[in-house]
Each structure stands twice: as C-alpha cells, then as structure tokens.
Amino acid sequence: MVRRARVFVFGLLLCLSWVPAEAQLRSLSILHTNDLHAHLLPDARQQGGFAQIAAVLRRETAGCNSCLILNAGDLVQGTPVSTLYQGVPIYEIANLLGFDASVLGNHEFDYGWRKIPEYIRLARFPIIAANVADERGRLLAKQAYVILPVNGIRVAVIGALTADLPNLTTANLLGPWRARPVVDAVRRSAREASQKADLIVVLGHLNPIEEDALLREAPEVAVVVSGHVHAGLESPKNSDGRVAVRLRAYGEEIGRLDLEVDLEKKAVVKSSWKRIPVNAATTPPAEDVARAVELWESKVRKIVDVPIGTAKRGFTREELVPVIEQAMAEEMGTDLAFIQVGGIRDSLPPGTILARHVWNIIPFDNKMVAGTFQGRELPPAVTAGRSLDPNREYTLAVSDFVASAQRAELGVTGLKFSRRTNRLQRDLLIDWIKKKKVLE
Which CATH superfamily is domain 19-295 in? Predict the structure, then answer.
C-alpha cells in the first residue's frame, strides 16, 4: 500500500508539473494605421475619415482582450485643419481612436520640431522613437519603446523613424535632431526590452529598404508594423515567420494582424493579415469622433470651402504636375517651373473646384523662389520633354523646399535661386485657378 501511495503521489506531481505545449501559446491581434495625414473627412470616393476609422477600430476590437491598436506615423499635415492649427487638433481627435502607441513620422516635423513636445503632451497614448536623438543622445520622444501587456503577453513596441529624416525636411524645422540608423537603434532597444518582454514589435515609419533590413538583420524583432510609403503591401513581407506589414495612406484601410505567440520561444508561430476597407458609404461614423471633427472643420469651412473654378474632368496627381507647373510659371513670370509629384498630395475631382481642394493638393507652407540658369545647367527632371538650348538662359520657378533640399530625388541639384518671395505655392495655385476659371 505504501509503495502504491508513493507511485500515485509521484504520478500526481508529474501531472501537475507538466504543462501542455498549447498552454504556452497566446493570441495577439494588432490593429494598425499609418499616414493618416489629417484626413479627418472621407475623400471624394467616400474612403477614410477619422469618424469612420474609429467605427471600424471599435468594431474590430469589441470584446477583444488580445488586441492592440498601433499607428505608424504621419498623423498630421495634409488638410486645412492641420495646416492652419499646426497639427494640434489632429492629436486631440486621435485620442478618440484608441491608439495604444504611435511612432513619430517625418511630417510631425513640418511645423517645427518644437511642436512635437506639444503633441506628446496632448496625446493620451505613448509616442515613441528609439533613433531620433540629438548629438548627446537625448531622445526627442523621451521613450524608445513601451511595454504593453495584453492577453498574458508582454509586448515591447519599439519606435523607429527612417534615417532619411534630414532629407525629408529642412534644417530649421529639424533643429538639433537626427534619425540614427534604424537597425542599430532597434537592436539596442530590443536587447534592453527583451529582458522584460515576450515579443518585440517595431512600430516604424520606414522606407522599404529599412523594413527589409530589420527582417534580415534584427532576429529579435518578430513583427514590423510600418508606414511612410503610401503604397501599402498586398501581402506581408515574411522572413522565417517574422513579418512586416504596411497599409495604403490616408485611412483608406485598417490593418489587422492576427498572431499566435509562443511565450517560451518568444516567437510568432502563426500569423495572418487582412486589410479592412474604410468605406464611409457603408460604415456609420463614430458619433463622438464625428462631433470632434465637425468642431474643427467648422472653424475652417469659411476659409476653404469657397468655389474658385471648375474642373471639366478629374486629375490624378501625375496629371496635376503640368497644370501646377503652368500655374507657377505664369504667376511667377518665368520660362519654366518644376514640381515633383511627391509634392502633390491629392488628386482633383471633376466639378466645382474649392479652395479646400488646393489646400489638400498642396498642404505645405512652401514659398515660391526663382532663378536664372543656362539650359545646360538644368537637371533632367526639369528638361524632360522640353527642347531647350543649352547656351540660352532660362528662368525657373520652384518651391523653397525643393530649392533648399537640392537632392536628386527631388529633381533639382546644384542650382542657386536668387529670387525669393513670401508667396505661398498654395496661394499661387488658388489665384491662378481663379483667373483660369476652367481646367480642361
């Protein structure tokens, strides 16, 4: 009897100490957005809108104890409310979207780096960036990462902003801050965070090369939720079960990344991703967010919802390039003008043209400049499609951003513009459309 009792007790202890493998698995769902760019209202195609985004997020997270909501940067810059009030209302409204964390985007610098501490104070969610620091190593965002406990998983979310930052804004707006190489900064934070976390997620505002580098060179990172490139991915990037996801810009869609996490291995063992359309025609708005949006939109309506002309047809961003260049040249009295398609942030629908359309197309407070150059001095981006005499002098108009950046990808290098004005590029286009009356 004693021997049987001992066998029974030993067997009982074995059962109590054995934990099935399934018990080490936990579910995690990451809802994510990126590059909302202050598009508070649905667009002409009835896509997006902050109140509709909120409704979709709330629907997807209702009753979910394993959900996080992350935003991958560039909340501000893109619409009149943001431009006129320097991004502040956008953060106030974003507080209603339920973000658990957001990373700094390059356009958070558009109103000057001193606005960013104000955004951080306004936000009721952590704003993170592990690699944006001054010469002494002080972080602008104060937090490199945040630990978010959800469904028994300690999720370390590390923020990272593209190291291209100095090329994406002007020195006076950037101040003393620079973005250090992404992989090095992330791995440094991951080593610290891994001591108190079960899973490492990078919330990045990154270019595709940096996304790929994280998957290739940072094995500690299980998931990359990215933004910055406005073209979303059709399917996740995958490297040995580690994934990177990114959406189209302007709130046209919400991402949902469903994961199974092995707590013992600190790894994702299963993942699936879907992109959820945000369709204002079929999605009733979240009423509290709609009220907040209307509060701010009502303040700018008298300024921007003013008819200035008629478009006989719709214009894509690419089709707007020659239109805007014509406007710049005629209004500035120059032979040539140049705008890169990246500086055009929206299309133009057919019908009545409102000043709002131009504010959405050119939201930046860029001023006009001009200079005189010989044909041989002008770069290919300016001369493409034009027959110019290399020995003749031509006058050229551009924005002060293009003039100061002097980068090949912006189409202008090695040119000094002697004529500077206080005329905003956006105002110039509005004035030209008023004179033109009809765009065909």
Answer: Metallo-dependent phosphatases (3.60.21.10)
